[in-house]
Amino acid sequence: xxxxxxxxxxxxxxxxxxxxxxxxxxxxxxxxxxxxxxxxxxxxxxxxxxxxxxxxxxxxxxxxxxxxxxxxxxxxxxxxxxxxxxxxxxxxxxxxxxxxxxxxxxxxxxxxxxxxxxxxxxxxxxxxxxxxxxxxxxxxxxxxxxxxxxxxxxxxxxxxxxxxxxxxxxxxxxxxxxxxxxxxxxxxxxxxxxxxxxxxxxxxxxxxxxxxxxxxx
Length: 217
Fold this sequence. Notes:
Layout: H1 4-21, E1 44-58, E2 65-79, E3 85-90, E4 97-102, E5 110-111, E6 118-126, E7 133-140, H2 144-168, H3 171-216
Antiparallel strand pairs: 1-2, 1-7, 2-3, 3-4, 5-6, 6-7
């Protein structure tokens, strides 16, 4: 004869199993229609995509310094109708834009501090913060091979944009962009030079203090 206690335990276990498997379904009080969120990339062709880390030169700081903007996929996008090419980069997870500017045939990627996996360049109008403003940007890749792939595609895009401008006869605009980029480059070099001078002055003052302290002792 079965023990009543064992039978009661079995019934209790069965009830728990039923409770665990029970998955109630509740209809939503308000039904919201699905909406397509546009990123403005729908009308563009992805020419290049690679993970990297982006920096901007904060010349407004005292002293000026490089500030990290974010890590994510940097893309070179070509508009399917207009033929324009832009650089777009979004931060991981948040997808917030950290770089967004048109590619100009006169933009030049320069090595950053002698590194073989980083590049520096100027742009007259970066729209990362919605309002366009000139920026000195730097980008760093995982290795030298990835950095060279980016440069090769970047230069290829520059040539394509140049041909488009020449075909439309809009070379005056390119010349004006060149002048402004040169002015921006000079200003950035001046800021970096000031930062280096301040550093040397600080080191000089520290050395003088050490000498005075040594004489007193």
